[in-house]
């Protein structure tokens, strides 16, 4: 099963000619999950090789505009490009984010008279008071939805922090379990852990031949974990004929933050194949970064080291840091300095550091059995 990450916007605060606002897509076997949706995300999607109509889930880390303003427009554009055939059973788009997101979408779509050709549901994460300064807490009155549901809106869940795991279980299916964890920012912010389930190991074909079995349906049943009985009465257990299981991949995507809260983040992100972490300003501006609820490359590296991530991807750069590809002769390559900041903090470790750029696609390869 293929898996990759495409960065649609790697800048902070606002979209610029050289960096879009925050947005990235995790793609797995054709399904696309969108993480954050800053202004202009739909335009970035059109310039990419991705199809907006493939987006089935959206995850919003926090309610600042550079992570959210693009969502209503994107939903409307996807609708315009959808089939109006009433016989077509369009899937519900599930949207996850902090309390207040449901009200934001309901009001925005309602005031603009926007109708969608597909259903959507907003599942809200209930923040805790320690996720931001007192003045950043959004009141219940401001964030509670009012009035009837939008015509295409389906009831969503309210997801509270599980005290035992210190995390939020968003959903799980046959392939993945997705959880959220708390971050500290100017307003409540969240990170997301996407954990793929372990995959069955390869069949021991030579042993199967010795047992008199030929390739066919029984192979598939054993691969799926079923016990089979041969014509001679021999019972074959999957554990006998399967090699060691292949560990599932793990991708962790953090929203804006100056720190993680509790132990859940490091526990959930432990051993991540890819850790995506903001690095708004260079290490020399750490005081300013923290004052505004953001991180530096050194701070991101500390998180990557603590959770033993294999690869650290930096993004959400201040617009002062232009992509290397746009620099002219004589220009200082400040963005490359951000990578050096992280690498210096990780000296002696095995963490690979990558600077995200708009439209960069990173493959998340399958793990080996060794």
From TrEMBL:
Q: Which InterPro entries match?
A: Metallo-B-lactamas (IPR001279), RibonucZ/Hydroxyglut_hydro (IPR036866), RNase_Z/BN (IPR013471)
Could you list this entry's UniProt keywords, alphabetically sorted.
Answer: Endonuclease, Hydrolase, Metal-binding, Nuclease, tRNA processing, Zinc
Q: Which GO terms describe its molecular function?
A: 3'-tRNA processing endoribonuclease activity; metal ion binding
Which cofactors are reported in the record for this sequence? Zn(2+)
Q: Which residues form the Metallo-beta-lactamase domain?
A: 246-317
In terms of superkingdom, the source organism counts as Eukaryota
**GO CC entries:** nucleus
Query: Which Gene3D superfamilies has this protein been placed in?
Result: Ribonuclease Z/Hydroxyacylglutathione hydrolase-like
Check the record and name the HAMAP family matching this protein: RNase_Z_BN
Q: Subunit structure of this entry?
A: Homodimer.
Please state what the protein is called: ElaC ribonuclease Z 1
Instruction: Report the source organism.
Output: Oryzias sinensis (Chinese medaka)
């Amino acid at each position: 099963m293929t898996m990759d990450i495409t960065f649609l916007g790697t800048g902070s605060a606002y979209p610029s000619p050289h960096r879009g606002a925050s947005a990235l897509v995790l793609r797995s076997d054709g399904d696309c999950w969108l993480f954050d949706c800053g202004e202009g995300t739909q335009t970035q999607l059109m310039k990419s090789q991705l199809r907006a109509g493939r987006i089935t889930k959206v995850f919003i880390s926090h309610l600042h505009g550079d992570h959210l303003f693009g969502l209503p427009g994107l939903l409307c554009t996807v609708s315009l490009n959808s089939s109006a055939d009433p016989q077509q059973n369009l899937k519900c788009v599930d949207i996850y984010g902090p309390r207040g997101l449901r009200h934001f979408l309901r009001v925005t779509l309602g005031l603009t008279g926007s109708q969608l050709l597909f259903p959507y549901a907003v599942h809200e994460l209930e923040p805790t008071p320690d996720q931001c300064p007192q003045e950043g807490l959004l009141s219940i009155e401001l964030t509670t939805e009012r009035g009837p549901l939008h015509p295409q809106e389906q009831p969503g869940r309210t997801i509270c922090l599980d005290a035992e795991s210190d995390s939020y279980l968003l959903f799980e299916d046959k392939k993945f379990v997705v959880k959220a964890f708390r971050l500290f920012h100017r307003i409540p912010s969240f990170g997301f852990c996407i954990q793929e389930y372990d995959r069955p190991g390869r069949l021991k074909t030579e042993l199967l031949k010795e047992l008199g079995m030929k390739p066919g349906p029984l192979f598939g049943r054993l691969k799926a974990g079923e016990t089979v009985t041969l014509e001679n009465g021999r019972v074959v257990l999957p554990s006998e004929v399967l090699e060691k299981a292949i560990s599932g991949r793990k991708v962790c995507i953090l929203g804006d933050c100056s720190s993680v809260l509790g132990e859940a983040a490091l526990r959930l992100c432990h051993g991540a194949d890819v850790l995506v972490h903001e690095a708004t300003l260079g290490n020399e501006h750490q005081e300013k970064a923290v004052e505004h609820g953001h991180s530096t490359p050194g701070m991101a590296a500390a998180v990557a080291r603590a959770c033993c991530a294999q690869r650290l991807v930096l993004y959400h750069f201040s617009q002062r840091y232009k992509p290397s590809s746009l620099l002219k002769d004589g220009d200082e390559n400040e963005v490359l300095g951000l990578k050096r900041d992280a690498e210096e903090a990780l000296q002696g470790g095995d963490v690979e550091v990558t600077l995200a750029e708009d439209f960069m696609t990173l493959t998340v390869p399958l793990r080996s059995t060794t």
